[in-house]
Amino acid sequence: MLSKRSAIQASRQLSSSRVALEGSKKKARSKAHEYIPENVEYGSLSKAQKAFLDRVVRVDQAGELGANYIYMGQYAVLSTKFPHLKPVLQHMWDQEIHHHDTFNKLQHERRVRPSLLTPLWKIGAIGIGAGTALISKEAAMACTVAVETVIGGHYNQQLRVLMNQFNIPIYDKETKRMLTPEEITKEIETSPELADLKSTISTFRDDELEHLDTAVEHDADKAVPYMLLTETIKLICRGAIWTAERI
Ligand SMILES: [Fe+2]
Ligand SMILES: [Fe+2]
Question: Which pathway is this protein assigned to (predicted)?
Answer without folding.
Answer: Cofactor biosynthesis; ubiquinone biosynthesis
